[in-house]
Amino acid sequence: MTTVNGIDARGTQHCETTTLGVLLRHQGLDLSEPMLFGLGRGLSFVYWDSKGMGFPFLGGRVRPFELTRNLAETLGLDLVVQETASPRKGWANVVEVIEGGRPVGLQLDSFHLDYFGSKVHFGGHVVAMYGYDDQVAYLVDTEQQGGAVSTSLGGLAQARAARGPMTARHRSFTLTAPQDLPAAHERIVPAITACAVTFLNPPIANLGHRGIEKSGKLVRTWLGRTDDPRRDLPQAALLMEKAGTGGALFRNLYRDFLAECSQVLEPSPQLRTGLGLYAEAAALWTEVAALITRAGESGDEEFLVRAGTVLHELSHIEREAMEALSRLES
Question: Which residues lie below 8 Å from residue 200, measured CB to CB, with a gap of 6+?
Answer without folding.
Answer: 208, 209, 319, 322, 323, 326
